[in-house]
């Protein structure tokens, strides 16, 4: 069963409080009547009222001050201000402070009070509905934004390692190539392969193998600049785009990375050949090794293959 609309009435004169209380209760409102602003504000703080009707002249503060305190507490609350004399200045001040309407005492027509209360309450309900819709829309937008971020992450990120995925790498490689041609500046790519990964999987299980890939990915993230782009190419293969990096610098970076991986204390590395985890690295640099994405990738892959074949677990 729906509750009657609640109204807070503040008037220092007991006679007017009782008149208003009886009048509004007969119109179907649940009325709380207080004689001063302090008690009224305490009641409003405990449970905010949708509608407040206050006299301008109350003992401990002005009705305008009470209006502002009520609005600070709950901006949706509608406030009607009363005064026992006709004052345009007071009415203007009340309206500027946020009052819904202004009543003059004594009431020549008591129906006016009920009509003002009805309109004020209808406005409160509209504002509350609007507020509810806005909040629902905000939550919907947050959920939509979260979903879009998740979809974007899924479109660009490898699920297992958190690195960029193969598709995003291909897009970034094209962008970097176009940028290098425009300025022009060199850039390099590293093709990285985890050595003896099948042995590690067969010895320790696939869950341990997944954890090894994640640990290796975290190591890669810490080993490159923010401007570099590290991606999982597929399986146990990784690629790195090094913007504005000539071949000699890229070779130095690859050497350091090889050493860092070889010396890192991966779990179960003692079971691997040489008692440690290693990677093989192939290197290609624009423009001397190619001027298209496919040529550069093929060159890096060939260098990786030659490194494994001729020197074993190293790079060109």
Commentary on this structure:
- It contains ten helices and nine strands.
- By secondary structure, it is α/β, with parallel strands linked by helices.
- A five-stranded parallel β-sheet has the order 2-1-3-4-5, with helices on both faces.
- The protein is rod-shaped, with a radius of gyration of 37 Å.
- Low-confidence blocks of residues: none
Order of secondary-structure elements: EHEHEHEHEHHEHHEEHEH
Number of helices: 10
Name the structural class.
alpha/beta
Q: How would you state the average pLDDT, rounded?
A: 90
**DSSP summary, beta strand count:** 9
- Helical content stands at 40-55%
Q: Order of strands across the biggest sheet?
A: 2-1-3-4-5
**What shape does the CA trace take?**
rod-shaped
**Rg result:** 37 Å
Oligomeric state as shown: single chain
- Proportion of residues in β-strands: 15-25%
Largest sheet: 5 strands, parallel
Distance between the termini: 81 Å
Topology (SSEs and partners):
Blueprint: E1 6-10, H1 14-26, E2 30-34, H2 37-46, E3 51-55, H3 63-73, E4 78-83, H4 88-96, E5 101-104, H5 110-156, H6 166-182, E6 187-194, H7 197-204, H8 206-223, E7 229-234, E8 237-242, H9 247-263, E9 279-286, H10 293-311
Parallel strand pairs: 1-2, 1-3, 3-4, 4-5
Antiparallel strand pairs: 6-8, 6-9, 7-8
Helix pairs in contact: 2-3, 7-8
């Amino acid at each position: 069963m729906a509750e009657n609309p609640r109204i807070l009435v503040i008037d220092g004169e007991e006679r007017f409080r009782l008149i208003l209380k009886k009048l509004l209760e007969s119109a179907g409102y649940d009325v709380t009547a207080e004689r001063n602003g302090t008690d009224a504000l305490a009641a409003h703080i405990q449970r905010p009222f949708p509608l407040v009707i206050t006299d301008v002249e109350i003992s401990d503060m002005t009705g305008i001050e009470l209006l502002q305190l009520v609005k600070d507490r709950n901006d949706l609350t509608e406030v009607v201000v009363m005064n026992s004399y006709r004052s345009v200045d007071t009415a203007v001040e009340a309206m500027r402070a946020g009052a819904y309407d202004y009543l003059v005492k004594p009431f020549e027509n008591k129906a006016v009070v009920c009509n003002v209360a009805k309109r004020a309450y209808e406005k409160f309900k509209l504002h509350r509905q609007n507020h509810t819709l806005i909040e629902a829309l905000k939550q919907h937008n947050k959920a939509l934004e979260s979903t879009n971020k998740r979809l974007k992450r899924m479109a660009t990120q490898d699920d297992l390692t958190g690195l960029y995925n193969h598709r995003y790498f291909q897009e970034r490689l094209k962008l970097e190539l176009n940028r290098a041609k425009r300025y022009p500046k060199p850039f390099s790519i590293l093709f990285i392969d985890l050595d003896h990964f099948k042995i590690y999987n067969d010895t320790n299980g696939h869950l341990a193998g997944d954890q090894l890939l994640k640990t290796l990915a975290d190591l890669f993230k810490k080993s490159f600049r923010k401007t570099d782009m590290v991606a999982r190419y597929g399986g146990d293969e990784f690629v790195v785009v090094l913007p504005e990096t000539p071949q000699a610098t890229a070779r130095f970076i690859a050497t350091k990375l090889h050493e860092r991986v070889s010396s890192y204390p991966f779990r179960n590395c003692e079971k691997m050949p040489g008692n440690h985890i290693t990677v093989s690295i192939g290197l290609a640099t624009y423009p001397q090794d190619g001027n298209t994405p496919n040529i550069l990738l093929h060159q890096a892959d060939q260098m990786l293959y030659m490194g494994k074949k001729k020197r074993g677990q190293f790079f060109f």
